[in-house]
Amino acid sequence: MNAPNRAQVIPLDESAPFPRAPRTLAETGLPLLFLVELAAKLLFVRGQMRLTELAQRLHLATTVLDGLLAFMRAERICEVMRRGETDGDVLYELTDAGRARATEYLGRCKYAGAAPVSLAAYVAQVGRQSVTKMHVTKEGVNEAFRGLIINPEVRDQLGAAMGSGRAMFLYGPAGAGKTYLAERLSLLLEGDIAVPHAIFVDGEIIQVFDPLIHVPVDDARRPASLDNLQRPDPRWVRCKRPVAITGGELTLHMLDLDYDATTGFYQAPPHVKANNGLFVVDDLGRQLIKPEQLMNRWIVPMDRHHDYLALHSGTKFTLPFDVVLVFSTNLMPSEVADPAFLRRLGYKIHIGPMNEEQYREIFTYVCAERDVPYDETAFRTLLTDYHKTYDQPLLACYPRDIINQIADLARYRGEPARLTPEVLHWAWHNYFASR
Fold first, then answer.
1. Residue ranges of the domains in the chain?
2. CATH homologous superfamily of domain 119-131+150-350?
3. What confidence tens digit (pLDDT) does each residue in 373-402 have?
4. Section 332-357 average pLDDT
């Protein structure tokens, strides 16, 4: 089964709250000297720039930059090279003293992109668009899982868990469909959220927006407002609720801030990038660290809904932990966590084998998809002579894997695919590596 496709650009959802653009330097929530550094670095990297170009690169309004550039001119950091017909056409360049300062600034931190938002602004915005404010209904779950063959009890458990916003633990044998179901939960995420390009903490920059996780919403149809009070803050990106999926590569180090000494700024950990959305820890137990260590890392965030992080300077601070946390594993709950942690898991959902009718539905669907004529006699043979004889449970992955093998063999032979006893025998023993 394939994961649901996530479009690169999604139609605009007007219902989501969105921060409004600052009109003054004070309203940015950032120190003046930090903004001076950011603008100086940008001018050093880009050379001469018009006021409108600076505004686009820094994601700040020209009304904010007017005050900033006036201060920089007074300090002889930059100068006006040419004036155009409008204020936006004014051309700025660093002075010799400004270039010297910019070189020093870039030696500490090479970030020269969108202005970050303050930590307080980020915390407040995550709270306003909390994942717990979603309203997941049975009708919505049925629509999201339309065409998916799933046990009704499991479907209701997943829906209730998503609606609660609490962590869930999906367990069962390999091939039962846990990963696919975990990914399918993304279809239950509703509404748009605001994601900052970066946040500013104690003089440091933490990059949050990640194009691999965040799917921007098409904002082209939003009418431009003449009222600055109604203009959205361009330091934030309107996105669909994020989905971050990690697997066997996950380590405890990855759950901390990632500082790059070469660039001088940080990348937020995956669960921070997933704030207001879904964070899936797949294949729990395959990581290099013990499952107990990984699970214990989540005790405080799950209880208090915030996480403690530290800068390389030693400064510690808290960030919201506002995700639907999903663990997917082949292990039993008692094998990966102690009773104290298991109590904190809102939902422990077993994803097991299918019954015969559900298995037939998947088998029939895959046959039609791969252009292999369905044959009831062959299906009965598969159940009695193979699944029953070899004591293999009816797992959701088997029909697709077996039919794919039969279709591959037919294509290799240059003949129509058929469910004959010969190819069924070949596919089964090839797949399960038995004779």
1. 31-113, 119-131+150-350, 356-432
2. P-loop containing nucleotide triphosphate hydrolases (3.40.50.300)
3. 999 999 999 999 999 999 999 999 999 999
4. 87
Which residue's entry shows tokens 């669909």? 240
- Which of 326, 329, 395, 331 has its CA nearest to residue 363? 395
- What six digits make up the tokens of 132? 């717990």
Residues for the chain: how many in total? 435
According to the model, what pLDDT value does residue 6 have? 39
Phi/psi for 331 (5° steps) reads -90, 155
pTM: 0.86
DSSP labels, 192-240 = EEEEESEEEETTEEEE---TTT--BB--TTSPPPSSGGGSB-TTEEEEE
Q: What dihedral angle (degrees, nearest 10) is formed by the CA atoms of 229, 230, 231, 236?
A: 100
Task: Give residue 411's Cα distance to chain centre.
Answer: 38
- Look up residue 297 and give its two tokens: 């890392």
β-partners of residue 348 are: 169
CATH topology of domain 31-113: Arc Repressor Mutant, subunit A (1.10.10)
Cα–Cα distance for residue pair 75/79, rounded to 1 Å: 10
Contact 240, 75 (CB under 8 A): no
Let me know: does 118 contact 29? Beta carbons within 8 Å.
yes
Residue 96, token pair as written in the block? 């010799």
- Asked if residues 423 and 415 have their Cβ atoms less than 8 Å apart, the reply is no
